[in-house]
Amino acid sequence: MKQVFGVLGDPIAHSISPVMHNAAFEALGMDCTYHAFRVEKQNLGDAIKGAKAMGFGGLNLTVPLKENAIGLIETDPLAARIGAVNTIDFKDGIKGYNTDGIGARKTLEDAGVDIEDKNVLVLGAGGAARAIAFTFTEAGAKVNIANRTPERAMTLAAEVGKVNGFGLDVLDRCLEDTDILINTTTVGMDPNIGDCIVNAEQMHSDLTVFDIVYNPLKTRLLQEAEAAGATPVTGIMMLVYQGAEAFRIWTGVEPPVDVMKKAAMEALRL
Ligand code: ATR
């Protein structure tokens, strides 16, 4: 009998996790299947316990459930600090992980960018920024956080520790010393494809600019990066790698990243 995996969210219809994971299972000849389930917040605990009881291999959680899992299940220390779970494993009880930050780290690694001791400027202070700020700080990067609402950046910075948080008004000064700029906001996402927070004049050619927005693949921010002679990194691999790392946690098998990327690109028509 096939082992079942799934993603829980609300809404969930547009999740591309099923195509990504099913392509991976098929490519490796694994007798597994992955489905999307719409679960309302108040039913999350029952859904997780039900999946465990039915012998599911593992779960992903997406919007708006990631934060709700904290307190409901045992979480690994990084997920607990981030305050959000995107991956649940059932091998040894019920354990929650967060692979979003690792997804971002692997994306940069893939692009040949080392983050250790680098000055990283994170734009935004939402869920993705939290995952990146905690994961990158633990990996030895020096992180700054700039957000439209400065208080949110300062609160996150204080939680992470050894990190500065500020508003968008001091970006210019900070960018001079920045090695890696990461946009975690929704600015530039379709249909607002003309928008971006930092323009070419504010960038320098030694900068790596990573936009986690993948729709469109080449955002306005990445076009500005190209114009400045900086190195652009698209967001699609973060989506792929957060899934690939979940796959690794559940199965212990090396994830077929290229297969997952191809499935994701096709599903998103990129
Ligand atoms: P997520 O969990 O997906 O990261 P979120 O918590 O809604 O989403 O956070 C979205 C981030 O994008 C926030 O940092 C938000 O800034 P505020 O904290 O000031 O709301 C940022 N953001 C969204 N639209 C923006 C815009 N037009 N200009 C600048 N920042 C924007």
Quick take:
Involved in the biosynthesis of the chorismate, which leads to the biosynthesis of aromatic amino acids. Catalyzes the reversible NADPH linked reduction of 3-dehydroshikimate (DHSA) to yield shikimate (SA). The protein folds into two domains: about 130 residues, Leucine Dehydrogenase, chain A, domain 1 (Rossmann fold, 3-Layer(aba) Sandwich); about 130 residues, NAD(P)-binding Rossmann-like Domain (Rossmann fold, 3-Layer(aba) Sandwich), CATH 3.40.50.
Second-tier CATH architecture of the largest domain: 3-Layer(aba) Sandwich
**Any ligands, ions or cofactors bound here, and which?**
2'-monophosphoadenosine-5'-diphosphate
Q: Measured on Cα atoms, how large is the radius of gyration? A: 18 Å
Number of domains: 2
Low-confidence stretches: none
CATH topology of the largest domain: Rossmann fold
- CATH secondary-structure class of the largest domain: Alpha Beta
Average pLDDT figure? 97
- Give the percentage of residues in beta strands: 15-25%
What is the count of DSSP helices, taking H or I runs of 4+ residues?
Answer: 10
Helix share bin: 25-40%
Helix/strand structural class? alpha/beta
Number of beta strands? 12
Q: What distance separates the N and C termini?
A: 34 Å
Q: For this structure, what is the CATH homologous superfamily of the largest domain?
A: NAD(P)-binding Rossmann-like Domain
Largest sheet: 6 strands, mixed
Order of helices and strands: EHEHEEHEEHEHEHEHEEHEHH
Global shape: globular
Give the spatial strand order of the biggest sheet: 2-1-3-5-6-4
Domain SDH C-terminal: 236-265
Binding site for shikimate: 15-17, 62, 86, 100, 214, 242
InterPro entries: Aminoacid_DH-like_N_sf, NAD(P)-bd_dom_sf, SDH_C, Shikimate_DH, Shikimate_DH-bd_N, Shikimate_DH_fam, Shikm_DH/Glu-tRNA_Rdtase
Binding site for NADP(+): 124-128, 147-152, 212, 235
